[in-house]
Amino acid sequence: SCVHLSSLQVLVSNALASISGNKENFIYCNYLNISVCPLTESASTFMVILYNPLGRRVSWNIRLPVKGAAYSVTDPNGQTVLNEVGRDRGDATHELIFPASAPPLGYSSYTVLKTASRDLRSRLAKRIREQAQPRVDAWSPREIQNEHLQVLFDPVTGLLREIQNLDKSISLPVSQNFFWYNASIGNDDSAQASGAYIFRPNRSEPFRVAGRARTYLVKNKLVQEVYQNFSSWCSQVVRLYAGQAYVELEWTVGPIPIDDGLGKEIISRFETSLQTDGRFYTDANGREILERRRDYRATWNLSQTEPVAGNYYPVNSRIYIKFQLTVLTDRSQGGSSMVDGSMELMVHRRLLYDDNRGVGEPLLEPGVYHDGLVVRGRHLVFLDTVESSAYQHRLQAQQEFMAPQLVLAPGGGPSFHRGQRNLKQFSALKQELPPSVHLLTLAQWDPSSILIRLEHQFERGESANGSQPVTVDLLHLFSSFTITSLQEMNLVANQKREAMNRLSWRPATGAARRQPYPPLNPLGVTLQPMEIRTFLATIRYAGPSGGQGEL
Question: GO cellular component annotations, sorted alphabetically (predicted)?
Fold first, then answer.
C-alpha cells in the first residue's frame, strides 16, 4: 500500500543519511515508469543514488526525465560517465540516459549537472528516425546491434523478424506481435464468463491488434531502440543497450477499447519454426523450472474442455522453449505455448462481465482518466544454447526481481555526524558472493543477533558452472559487523538444525540411510544446488571507528 511504501522510504532515507553522512532531502520518484520526476525535470544539479540489494555488483542503465539538452554525470570517484540526452517522454522535453553500477549490498552516488546547451543536431548526430512505409520496398532490413546480439525487423511490417547471438554464431527467425482473445460471456457449453478469477476466451484463435507497426529507429552510443506503434492503445520499444546480452521489449498497453461491446485479453506472442513437441517450461516462484506439455497431465488422462485456458500456466519470472529462446517477465503473468515453437504472455485484460467468483463486478478498471487502465512492462528475451541459457536467465531474473532502487537528492545537505565525511559509495560486504549464491535474508533478530539465509539459486545439472556446490566464508563476509558466534537453524529459524528429528522412510530397496549433519564451519559454509541454509549469528558492530558505520 502507499502507507507501507512511504514508511519504507523513510526507513531507507534514515539509513542512507546515517551511512553516507549527509542529511539530504531524499526523494523517491514513484512515477518514473511514466517519465515523471519533478526533481530531475527542474533542478540544474542533483544526486542519483543507486542501491543494490544483491550480494554481487550489478550494472544498471538509468533513465531520468529532464528538460535540459546537455548534462555531465560523475561517478563516486569523480570520473565522468558517458551519457546521452534522448527523445522526449512524458511531460519532460528530454530523457537523460547513463550507465551506473553499485557494489554488493550497497550503494553508489552519482552527481548530475546541467551544462550549457549544445547544438542538438551535433548532440544527437547519430540519432536516426525513420517512419515505416505502408508499402513493399527494397529496403535493407531494419536492425539494432551491440557486441552480443543483432536484432532484425521486417522493413514492411516493422515487426521483429530475427535474433542473432553473435557470440555463439546462432540465429533464430522470431516474430513478435500483440493479439487479443475475445472474452467469453458464457455459451452453450458453460455459463462461465471470463473475469477477474477466470480466463475463458470464446474461441481458440486470438485476433491481431495490428498486422504491422509504424516504427522509427533511435541510435546513440549507449542504446539502440526501435519504437513500434501498433495502435492508439498498443505500442512497444525494442531496446538494446551497449554490452547487453538480451533484447528488452518495453510494452505499453491501454486503455483497451470496449466500444464494440467485447471484453479483451491482450497477449504478446513470440513465434518461431521450432518443433517443440508441445513442450515449454515455466518457473515455480522463481526457483525450480517445470516442464509443461500442451493438452497433457502427467498423473491422469486429460480430457481437455478449454483448449486455451486449460494450457495456461503461471509465469512468475520466465518461460522458454528449448533451442533455447527465453523470455523473462517483470511481474507474474499467465503464459503458454499454444502452437509448437511459440510462446505467449498475457499483459492486460479489460472485461465486461463478472465471473461470479466473489468480486461482484467485472474486471473494468477505470484508470487515472476513467477511460481504462494503461499498463507498462518489460519482457527480456535471451537467445542462447540450452547448455548456456540457465546461467544467463537465472542471474538476470534475480536482478530483475531485486532490481537496484533509485533514490534522488538535491545535494549539498548538512552532515549527519559532525566531522563525518560524505561517503559516496558503500558496501555491507567485504567481498562479492559467488554468482550462484543469493543472500536471501539479512534481518535483525535481537540487538546483538541477526538472521542470515543463503540460497543456491541453480538446479542440479542445469548449468556446468552454476550448478556446482559453492562454499562461502561467512565469518569474513560482512563489513559493518563481526560475527562472534554462529548457529545453524532449520529453514524457519525456530529450531537448531542439530536438534531436528526428521521422519524415517522405508525405501523400496536397500536400507534406510540418514545423512548426519556435518559440523558447522563458519569459514566454509557449503551450499548444494537449490539448497537454502539458515543461520543465527551473534554480532558486534564495527561502529564509526571501524570506518564502515552501522548497518
Answer: lysosome
